[in-house]
Amino acid sequence: MKKESPLWYKNAVFYEVSTRAYYDSNGDGIGDLNGLTQKLDHIQHLGVDCIWLLPIFPSPLVDDGYDIADYYDVHPDLGTIDDFKELVKETHKRGMRIIADLVVNHTSDQCEWFKKAEADVHSPYHDYYVWSDTDQRYTDARIIFVDTETSNWAWSEKTQQFYWHRFYSCQPDLNYDNPAVREEMKNIMRFWLDMGIDGFRADAVPYLIEREGTTCENLPETHAYLKEMRKLIDEEYPGRILLAEANQWPQDLRPYFADGDEFHMAFQFPLMPRIFKALAKQDVSPIIEILKMTPSIPDNCQWCTFLRNHDELTLEMVTEKDRQFMWQVYAPVNRMRLNLGIRRRLAPLLDGDAKKIELLYALLFSLPGTPIIYYGDEIGMGDNIYLEDRDGVRTPMQWNNGKNAGFSDAMEETLYLPVIKSDQFSYLHINVAEQMQDDSSLFNHIRKLLAIRKSNPVLAEGDYEVIPHTSDPALLVIKRSDPHETIFALHNLSNQTIAFDLQSHLGHEEIIYNLLEELPLNEKCCQLRPYAYTWLKIANSD
Ligand code: NOJ
Ligand code: CA
Q1: pTM
Q2: Ligand 1 site-directed mutation target among 64, 169, 203, most atoms within 8 Å of CB
Q3: Which pLDDT does position 399 carry in this prediction?
């Protein structure tokens, strides 16, 4: 059964999963809820505490389910509400939790609310959306999907008005100045929370409310509504969580935690691209700088750290110069670029280099925050940049080297997306079955790191300090400590061996244990081979 501490999310590991991509239980070529339920043992075996489920609602799937047509049901391709309840039950049975996406900001234009809004301007649903006679309002708001949209306003032939949308034009924004919308979203929360889910990853939260003369992001009125959502959780569903998707600079991100009365968690967006930049430059200063810029958060809050997710690797929170650098290094081919980002998975970004992949995971697991692993990245799955939009990083999970990578019994031609077959990342050699048998596989490395992290809670919840002035700019030393113990996490982000002298950071009577080797370390100077990492635990000799 799941553990009962209300602060469970502060020391946890999350796993992001696309139901459609995971496992097809009924042979129609599309992964489904029952399929996911059948594969829960894999997720548990990895050492995951909480699953984040990408949208599962009825949808025309123009934005892969982030365009919701009905908030109170499950997409028929994926199963039924009963299948969902079964998934929740089985997840809890394994001691894990599960949160779902809550798409707060917008619906699909196929949602009944929008259809009614367009059909009759006097319908109560008309005011569910944001309308205007001109497209010259809120002109200070940026366009997010720059590759496809030219305006945040779209013309409705039916109403002869413009409607507001921050994402695709088929995703009209909801009007949070309307109390009925505010209540509706709360009822949606209750609907899913009543089925036992453990919270929500709330999508696109900076954009709820629009005001003239502003960027229409992070407005105080938006924060006020988000606090109402939190109040609902605290009063009616204590112990459940809200995780914010707010792709913002640290100073704008911090207010989403407020005084510990808004979000429990928020993605650490600015950190992520800097990890990749630091690796490419063999210089850890971008990581150190952003950590310095990141304000501390209330005790009941936690960051969510990640390397990759289902979207493009976003370069929105970097300077123009860094964006050009990142594109040159990590997206040399034009098709790898999308909007202000890079549509590639973790393993191809790092040329399939196992040492670098492990290093970045180790780094993620020693930095402050709760890490999220994107499905498939635990085995180093590849991508397909020739698919449209972000589909290239959403291909079927590779379970074994059999038909359709063990994902589905269907005819290959009917799969929702093709499996990865390219030489380097083909499912023939990159798959769960093979990695489970191999002690030195990426899957088993991550599993081992997570297990060590679990048995050393200081790595998740201890104070952290970056040790300055180490011997080399490519060496990142993170000290995690609490009153009982100290761990030094060392990471060499370069292709050269680096030495680190621990002596000056220690007291007299201390012994150093290498947590990864399970051996005491006699030398107080560590040699780190290219792209090596290690976790050293300091204990008193008595
Ligand atoms: C963020 C989601 O992660 C992304 O996939 C989606 O397209 C936008 N929000 C719009 O919902
Ligand atoms: Ca299916």
Answers
A1: 0.97
A2: 203
A3: 99
